[in-house]
Amino acid sequence: MTSALRIALVFPDLLGTYGDRGNALVLEHRARARGIDASILEVAAGSPLPDSCDIYLLGGGEDAPQVAASEGLRASRAALTRALDGGAALLAVCAGFQLIGHHYAAAGGRSMEGLALVDLHTVPGPDRLIGEVLVEPEPTTGLPAITGFENHGGRTHLGPEERPLGRVLRGGGNGDGTDGVLHGGIVGTYLHGPVLPRNPALADHLLAHVVGSALEPLAEAVVDRYRAERLSFATLTGSARRRAERRLHRG
Amino acid sequence: MSLRRRAAILSGRAAGWASRATGRGAGTQVSGRVMLAVDPDLLGVVGARDRVVTVSATNGKTTTTRLLCDALRHAGLPVVTNHTGANMASGIAAALAAPHEPSVAVLEVDERWLTHVVGPLDPEVLVFGNLSRDQLDRFGEVHAIVDRWRAITEATPDRHVVANASDPHVVHAAEPSRRVTWVALGIPWRQDATTCPRCDALLEWPDGGFRCAACGFAEPPADFRLEEDVLVVGSRRIPLDLAIPGTWNRMNAALAATVAEAHFGVDAQAAVAGMAAVEVVSGRFALHRLPDGRAARVVLAKNPAGWTEVLRWLADRDTGVVLAVNAHIADGRDPSWLYDVPFELLRGRPVVASGERALDVAVRLHYGDVTCTVEPDPLTAARGVGGTEVHIVASYTQFTHLTKEFW
């Protein structure tokens, strides 16, 4: 690549409730580690989205900020679709994931219009899904297991032509045994934690889409150790998990 | 007093005594729980003897409560208060049922419990400090608490409220009251105050204060104002010379001094003098001595706003830093917030990632270009870290563990 890779952190003041800035940091770091110049552009709420960025990040947000964000995003929808048609990638997490569909449930169950970038919609669920999640990604992605933390009340239904990000082995996700969506350069998911620090392969998946080729492997000891710890925790069940928690507690 | 009421108090005290005698705890919570189980109306009766003031906030309620107690005592008023952490109905009942002369009852009240205790306690004055995100996985979003606080001031608009004019959530909660004393404390953490609590439009911050262009909601003019380390009241400028550290404690002290003057008629200057000697608040800010002679201070940081304030304060010091983080229910089980907090301020310092979630911390620091080592045990980490002094910044369960076990 000749020009620098630009990562747009979209409305961090509205869609940044769950450490979503972390996803931008990881993309920037992992691009630079491969010799790709990269920078983060923060698009403040109320500002128009540029169409010149390579990766767009939509994060989690509370009810009122989510509605405020969707108004701003609809005004910039043309710029976003131009960028995506030109090969950009989009990571949409939690509230951001709901916003890329046709409609979503706001406070009090009101149905609000989304960006309709993907054929999906979200309805209110009977309860909030809160806790650690383990997802087995679609085999075609070649991605290893994904871990994260979810905290949402919505249930998301994908249209017949859409593929989920993967199958939920632990946790709630979309609410039907799957989590998220894969649609061209778009990755949607309910997982934060944030999701990319926990799952560097997913970060590389987004970067590869933009760069147009697979990236050379990048091994970083502390990141690998962390990933292994989260993964082993997520795969424990019942009494084994409780024992592990006690062991951890004793230090 | 009815037999049932007497029985409630006696059996509660017995339970508290049993809890202490068997080494299970301070006995406050269990004592209050037993009292309320025997006599659910006890809170209203025991509270009627005292002039009640409640102190609620996401951050600083324990310290503000303590500072206000010392300020009022210094001015010669008899004061009762609840034990740290015992800030729900049971802890309050236990504190008020203890034998005491009619006093000012300065009560720390959990922000989510305020609606439940205001009815029976009928406080003279409510103190509203600040509201921001805190353990989202457990308590949900900020606006739900704002709505509950606002319902209180709507129902009893003649009750005195002392409230932080700089926090849009607090202003929205307090403004239905006809008797508000505003104190402008500033708002270092704005990330939960992006939208207008009244109409959901984007808030603007033209010159430090907030304003909504859509509905006119704006920061109210305040009679008390914190400017750096000085509390400004009209033409008076009162320096906040405190033994406890940090900007956030100046905010706590300014709030407490405002309550002392505006509600209890204690001159703010005298109130500040009464707080000056407070060094440790329930283990917070306590200094310990490491085996090699260096001083180590334990600082509690419960949520992103608190962490951010502590990191800003540490950025100016030549200190080794141990970041001790757990993710139990009381810490918040989701450590995503690590990325909401500017750990980049620690670049160049000796830093150890510690606690049960040491690897979450280490990876966060890695992506912030902060070099660190990993040692899950914070005391071992403190002994090994460089620096002329050491600060252990701890999440809630790490903090309570450390204050109990500290060498």
Tell me the distance between the termini of chain B: 46 Å
Percent of residues in helices of chain B comes to: 25-40%
Strand content of chain A: 25-35%
Count of individual helical segments of chain A = 8
Gyration radius of chain B (Cα, Å) is 21 Å
User: What is the general shape of chain B?
Assistant: globular
Count of discrete alpha- or pi-helical segments spanning 4 or more residues of chain B: 15
Strand content of chain B: 15-25%
DSSP summary, beta strand count of chain A: 12
Low confidence ranges of chain A: none
Largest beta-sheet characterization of chain B = 9 strands, mixed
Mean pLDDT of chain B: 90
What series of H and E elements makes up the topology of chain A? EHEEHHEHEEEEEEEEHHHH
Quaternary state reads heterodimer
Distance between the termini of chain A: 46 Å
Unreliable stretches covering 5 or more consecutive residues of chain B: none
Q: Which outline of chain A best applies? A: globular
Reported for the largest beta sheet of chain A, the result is: 6 strands, mixed
Alpha-beta content class of chain A: alpha/beta
Strand order of the largest sheet of chain A: 2-1-3-4-12-11
In which order are the strands of the major sheet of chain B placed?
2-3-1-4-5-6-7-8-9
Notes on the protein architecture:
The complex is a heterodimer of chains A (251) and B (407). In chain A, helix 1 (21-32) packs across helix 6. Helices cover 33% and strands 29% of the residues of chain A. In chain A, strand 11 and strand 12 (186-189) form a beta hairpin. With 251 residues, chain A is α/β, with parallel strands linked by helices. Chain A starts with a strand and ends with a helix. Chain B is 38% helix and 16% strand. In chain B, strands 2-3-1-4-5-6-7-8-9 form a 9-stranded mixed sheet, with helices on both faces. The A-B interface holds A 13-14, 16-22, 25-26, 29, 45-46, 62-65, 67-68, 130-131, 149, 151, 192-194, 197, 220, 222-223, 225-226, 229, 248-249, 251 and B 133, 136-137, 141-143, 191, 194-195, 200-202, 328, 333-340, 356, 359-360, 362-364, 366-368, 374, 376-377.
